């Protein structure tokens, strides 16, 4: 059953994303650490340019983060790091097998990086994961959401592990505090949860705010794409949904500006799904998976990993997505008024 925050959410068709004709915009290089796959890029605007922190895997299969700085068009790669800008710390037991799926939130004059820290459970406390890995079946895979900060996308400071006792993924902070507290969207399988903290170290979980929908394209699991984008009508949250055939698609939801636990609306159908060859064949076929979007020069630019192999771009005019958010907000308000009258 839906939570109280979602039970009256408006379900409304949203504008579909349009693929950029230059796709894929980022592919593997000959560098040993990124010569297999590059995908799932965080996106943020820094000094007027879109910066992509992308997940890369090379000869050792370990996930590291590379940096690509895009030109003013938000498409063309202007600069690309020859070495990882962020990689697993040798002395950090949480991330011995990689740093994965980054998401970047600007807050004040700094940037907060949330990423999946991958490691193994100790042999005395095995927990077998169903996740396929190059290390074989039955591996006790452990994943946590880790948080770091940066001011320049080249130097990072590790800050905390959120919810240290839970397997967790798909984390991102809201771009402002609420009552002096950080809010974190995260995924405790199979749904999107909301956590709160005053110091990034001690977390309370509100529980799920967005649930799977049986019999639909997002019936198996859901998780956020990038951090939510502010609009005058609510927080625009792009998310991924997975069906029983394990096809990954993107949808969108709208959260209340002042109380993000409240889901105002949600798209009925995907706004992007695997159709192109580079999305249907690769390391993991039939996947479009985003870790970041930016509101940039009148467009919502959604950067996404295709088949866990390359980085691509899809776009929608800001005015079209804001029109959807405005309609959702209006319908939600009317539904709320009718519900209140019905209780009188």
Write the layout of secondary structure elements.
Elements: E1 10-11, E2 18-19, E3 37-46, E4 49-57, E5 63-70, E6 77-80, E7 98-107, E8 110-120, E9 141-150, E10 156-162, E11 169-173, E12 182-188, E13 191-197, E14 204-210, E15 221-224, E16 229-231, E17 234-242, E18 248-255, E19 263-266, H1 277-280, E20 288-296, E21 299-306, E22 310-317, H2 318-343
Parallel strand pairs: 1-19
Antiparallel strand pairs: 2-22, 3-4, 4-5, 5-6, 7-8, 8-9, 9-10, 11-12, 12-13, 13-14, 15-17, 16-17, 17-18, 18-19, 20-21, 21-22
Architecture overview:
There is one protein chain. The protein is mainly beta and 344 residues long. It has a single domain (10-343), classed as Glycosyl hydrolase domain, family 43 (Tachylectin-2, Chain A). It contains two helices and 22 strands. It has helices spanning 277-280, 318-343; strands spanning 10-11, 18-19, 37-46, 49-57, 63-70, 77-80, 98-107, 110-120, 141-150, 156-162, 169-173, 182-188, 191-197, 204-210, 221-224, 229-231, 234-242, 248-255, 263-266, 288-296, 299-306, 310-317. A hairpin with a 6-residue loop joins strand 13 and strand 14 (204-210). The protein starts with 9 loop residues before the first strand and ends with a helix.
Radius of gyration: 19 Å
| Biggest pleated-sheet summary | 6 strands, mixed
The total beta strand count reads: 22
Report how far the terminal alpha carbons are from each other.
Answer: 25 Å
Mean of residue pLDDT values: 94
Parts with pLDDT < 50 across at least 5 consecutive residues: none
CATH architectural type: 5 Propeller
The CATH topology turns out to be: Tachylectin-2, Chain A
Indicate the percent of residues in helices: under 10%
Number of helices, where a helix is a run of at least 4 consecutive DSSP H or I residues:
2
Report the order of strands and helices: EEEEEEEEEEEEEEEEEEEHEEEH
| Approximate shape | globular
CATH superfamily heading? Glycosyl hydrolase domain, family 43
Q: Which structural class should the secondary elements be placed in?
A: mainly beta
